[in-house]
Amino acid sequence: MQKETIPPGSHTLREILTQPTAWQAALREVAEKQAELKQLWNSSQFSEILVTGCGSTYYLSQAAAPMLQKQLGTRARPLPASELLLFPDTIIVPGTRSLLLTISRSGRTSETIQATRAYKRSQQGPVLTISCYGDTELAALSDLALIIPEGQEQSVVQTRSFSAMTVAAQAAGAILADERQFQAMQALPALGEQLIATHHELASQLGQDERFERFYFLGSGLQYGLASEANLKMKEMSLSYSEAFHFLEFRHGPMSMVNERTLVVGLLSDAARAQELAVLREMRALGGQTLVLSDQPVPVEAADYQVNFHAQLPCTNRGVLYLPVLQLLGYYRALKNGQNPDQPHHLTAVIILEPGS
Ligand code: F1P
């Protein structure tokens, strides 16, 4: 019998479109584990929270660390697992107590596991894990694991898994800082469904727009890690020229690349909105087009296109809302470029290293 041919990108599109159900599952997991989470957090006076992962989950760490510091008032530092593994003396301060948050879709990435083993040997402190698989060595190494099986994917690139783990991280921060925030986050899945329904067409239109050959993703504070992840989606899926920068950093050289073939995507914060809008206005004046993602509408002179969430949630609780449209942007650019998002060039779902490599 003829093997059914699945259209390119089918798994990825389905996983992007269904991600709000995985957000719901992430909220449920944090609610069910809140007693253990509070017990872990209150078990020590931690001097620092180290947040680690690889690739997409390193970018998630970049988004989670400033959120946790803002929520909990404890220094939090994102780092690639390879840095913790290879250069621990540039990260671990002997004699201090820290909490390690490891983030991994698979729970099987060699660097993340080896770094976590080494951290436990150093007896610096406990390990909290966020993952989509519970039956893994990483989960077994952890003092507490928040597991979201509903985030599991068939595609290589992380979309639904990433956003579900983002919700879990933000929900953990909220439930430890102020349970009223956690209650307000219950609105996120419905907001996500609404965002996808409203802006799917815009993402498809921009993704397939032949005017654009360069993509820059700008984000600051809690949004920088999300901008880095959006950039990785564009690269992984479509093989496009794209980069991520902190908003005001873009002026210090990289903006020289802006031209009429450029789309500058701004993930707006609340706190630095005015400064970020100034950068976007300047990039338009240089010939670039801008797509702005923000909670509330922005003046049209800063945005050729805009996506507003209307979430009425603080930035510590709504980071996930930036993701669906930007995942779809990369997906449609991939199809435009003749790529199959389900099978990205050179990539595998997990990087397992040979011993000693
Ligand atoms: C980490 C990772 C992904 C990347 C690719 C290869 O996986 O680097 O971030 O997108 O899928 O693996 P994990 O530790 O989050 O499972």
Shape: globular
Low-pLDDT stretches are none
By DSSP (H or I, 4+ residues per run), the number of helices equals 13
Distinct small molecules bound, one entry per kind = 1-O-phosphono-beta-D-fructopyranose
What is the strand tally? 10
Strand content: 15-25%
Summarize the helix and strand pattern as letters: HHHEHEHEHEHEHHHEHEEHEEH
Helix percent reads 40-55%
**Could you tell me the mean pLDDT?**
96
Biggest sheet: strand arrangement: 2-1-3-4-5
Query: Rg from C-alpha positions?
Result: 20 Å
TL;DR of this structure?
This protein has about 350 residues and is an alpha/beta fold. The protein contains 13 helices and 10 strands. The relative contact order is 0.15.
List the helices and strands and how they pair.
Layout: H1 10-17, H2 19-32, H3 34-41, E1 48-53, H4 56-72, E2 76-80, H5 81-86, E3 98-104, H6 110-122, E4 127-131, H7 137-141, E5 144-147, H8 160-177, H9 179-184, H10 188-207, E6 214-219, H11 224-238, E7 241-245, E8 262-267, H12 273-285, E9 289-294, E10 305-308, H13 323-336
Parallel strand pairs: 1-2, 1-3, 3-4, 4-5, 6-7, 6-8, 8-9, 9-10
Helix pairs in contact: 1-13, 2-8, 2-10, 4-8, 4-11, 10-13, 11-13
This protein binds 1-O-phosphono-beta-D-fructopyranose.
